[in-house]
Amino acid sequence: MTQVSGKPNKLVRSFALFLYKLFGKPFVQASPFIPLTSWHGASDAGAAKHGPCFVGGWLSDKNTPAKEEVWWFHHEVTPEGHPWAFKSGDPQKRIAALEMMGTLLLVYFLIQKGSRGSARVMIPMVSDNQGNIYAILNQKTRKMPTALLLMELVLQLHLHECRVAPSHVKRDFNQWADELTHPDYRGFHPSRRLDVLAAWTHFPLVQEVLEGKDDSLWNISL
User: How many whole angstroms separate alpha carbon 157 and alpha carbon 111?
Assistant: First the structure.
C-alpha cells in the first residue's frame, strides 16, 4: 500500500511525455541501407562565467563550402529565455546542456534541409563535445537538462524517420561553429541565417517540460 504521494521529478515526467509523443507515431525501422544525405554541419556552444552564452552552427550540402555559402545559426542564450541554462547564475555549469542544445538545433535544421523530398536519410554532423557524441550514439544520458534535450533530438529523428551519424572533432577543427558562439560572426552571409526562435517552437518536450510553457498534456487520460 502506498503511504505517501507526490509529483514525479522532472526527469521522470520528461521520460513519460517522451514516450507518449514517441508512441503517437508508428515506429518505422530504418534500413541500414538508407542513403547518406549530402547535407552536413557542425555546432558548438560557448559561455563566460556569470556572463553571456551563445549556441551556433552551420550546415551545407557542398563538400567544401565557402564560409559565405553555408546556412548558419547564432543564438544568445539568456536567463529570461532559457532559465534552465543558468545554474546558480553561471551558464558554464550547463555547458554540456548548451552544446546539446546546439546539436539539437543543428539536427533540426539538417532534417529540414536534408530530408526535403527524400525521407529516411542518414544525416552526418559533428561536435567537439565528445561526451554528447557518445550520448547521441547510445541515446542515453542521466543528467538533466541534457537528458531532455537528447530525448527531444531522438523524438525529432523518429518523427521525420531519419537517422543521424554523429562524429567527434577536436575544437581546432570546429572553427566556424566556434566562431558562431561569439558576438562577432563576420563572413557568414546574412541572408543565410536560420531562425532559431521559430525552430524552438517545434520542440514539444522542451516547451512543455524544460521551459514549462504548456502543461496541458499532463492532464491527459491514458
Answer: 8
* Residue 148 burial class via C-beta count within 10 angstroms: exposed 0-12, middle 13-18, buried 19 and up: buried
Strand, coil or helix: 120: coil
- Distance between CA atoms of residues 207 and 222, nearest Å: 21
The cell numbers describing 124, all together, are: 552526418
Q: Name the pLDDT band for 222 (thresholds 50, 70, 90).
A: very low
Going by pLDDT thresholds of 50, 70 and 90, the confidence category of residue 158 is confident
| 73-106 CB burial, b ≥16 within 10 A, e <16 | bbbebeeeebebbbeeebbeebbbbbbbbbbbbb
What mean pLDDT is reported for the chain? 78
**pLDDT tens per residue, range 22-60:** 777 776 666 666 666 788 888 888 887 777 889 999 999
Cα separation, 107 vs 43, whole angstroms: 9
Cell digits of residue 204: 514539444
Residue 146's Cβ-count burial label (10 Å; 0-12, 13-18, 19+) is buried
pLDDT at position 220 over 50 = no
What is the model's pLDDT at position 163?
Answer: 76
48: nearest Cα among 213, 181, 200:
181
**Could you tell me the CA-to-CA distances from 216 to 57, 83, 183, 188, 221 in Å, in that order?**
32, 21, 37, 40, 11
Cβ proximity of 33 and 53 under 8 Å:
no
